[in-house]
Predict the structure of Gp28/Gp37-like domain-containing protein.
Amino acid sequence: MPTLPTRAEREQIVRTRGQWVGVLDRDFQFVMEVEDWQSASWGEVYQDTANMQMVLPGEIAPGVQNPLVRWLLQTGSSDPDGVFHDAVTIVVERRGYNGNLRRFYRILDIIPEGGRDYPETVTVTGLDGIEYLKHLPLWADPSTRSKVVQMQFEDKQQGSAEWVSRKLVGRNLIGYQQPGMFHQLFDGSATGLTALTDGYDNPKRWRAMVPEMHRIICSPISSGLPSEWSVVCARWDNAFDLLRPTWEAAGILPIVSLWLPGDYQPFPDHTTLTLPTVVVDFRPVSMLSGARTLAGQGIRSLTRKIDAGDQITSATEFSDAATPTRAGKKPWVVFDCDEAPKVTLRKSTDSRFLVGGKSPKVVNTTVKAAIKGAAAYIISFIPGIGPPVAEAIRTGGDILADLSADHFLNLNEHIDRDRQRRHGRSGYLAIAKQGEANSMESIQKAWQAKTETNGGLSVEFAIADAYPYLPGRDFQLGDTVGFVAWGEVWAAYVSSIEWTSAPGEPVGFTVGVGDVRPVQDPEALFASNVETIRGRLSRLTSTVD
């Protein structure tokens, strides 16, 4: 079994070639380096899964099959299923702000084409680490892990959006991989058994962790940056789908990385990693979807201010402090393009957002209590009623009370008054989102709708040489950057960074700034718009006393 080059060796390769590419097997063990490809792109996308694509030559010399192609296709193997099921990961490293910056992708498709004795080319595609969050159901009671009955109706967590995300994901990962950790006496006190609930960031509660049992761990270390208050209730929901509205509302960036032996320990006070491990993290970002300032004025003090009254009206303004970059620096990257790239300036479409459809638990409880009370009142006023008749009326009241659940719709209206003013008389009326009214979920779903109908700028431009700026060192996904065009500075968050590579060419980058949806092809844009405005208020919800 070949050994993974040391961190110093990989850093030397990156300094020499611009990047290091390797293949890992199903247990994240090193297989081989990759040096030959016809073209390659490795993407990273804001708040969603990104993909990679590599086009490999079938032969590296006449009659000499590419060893990676041979391994991927399992040429000569007697295992009939391995090529269809064995997990494979591609790892790419480039220069970063603290050593190499790493991306990893689990291979999804292998597409050999042409040739006779060997394929002429093999195209490999894969998905990055965010995909792990789309395959993580969140349990109502992750500490019980009973598949027959859960001891609680929902896992309700509240706090800053970053902390709620960290805690829900972290608790469930522990429940899947080391459930006994929930019932250890971590803190050394004599007060009885404790569960990993409120003290997820407390190193004492991690004493029982056996890191070798955990292939995925959510970091317990917060960024230290403020984020919006949120309440999220998990009930066997997909983690990505459940939390994404909160991320969109609060500007939270999910980060999924791969820790390899030789790397710095990510949370040494809590546990020590020894095996390759997927690490989940979260960080608030600026979420500035588009702004325009005068040239020379800079972008470091641009921020989004949310009205404290309605919690949804927002405007861009200058301030004394701004959200730092992921490298901990003040935002300062402004590209001065020789020729301005093609820019899409998108107008916002809606200002009023309706959220509701579910009958909140408190409404169901109140209505049921009122109906049962009415039945009891009727019984008390019928003279000479016998026990059978009284019981029949009482039973009928109970049945009617249960049938009444979810028949009362509750709706909240959220209006961005700044947008409403700017849309004027020609503005659209409203769009609706399903959610629970009179709850924190309502404002989060409204923010999701507001984000999906947002105005801003979209631009993608290729960078062969980012001098004096370097992706990974000076700016990363989610950071605010700007570029000078037509005498103005146009600024927005970095929504995608695609690493590109081709033989004989220096390593390159394609940077997406702002909401990338307006630069999609027309069919994809139309589908996205249909999904945004299509809302059906549903009564479906669980009834709990």
Remarks:
- The chain has ten helices and 28 strands.
- The first strand starts at residue 20 and ends at 24.
- The two ends are 58 Å apart (CA to CA).
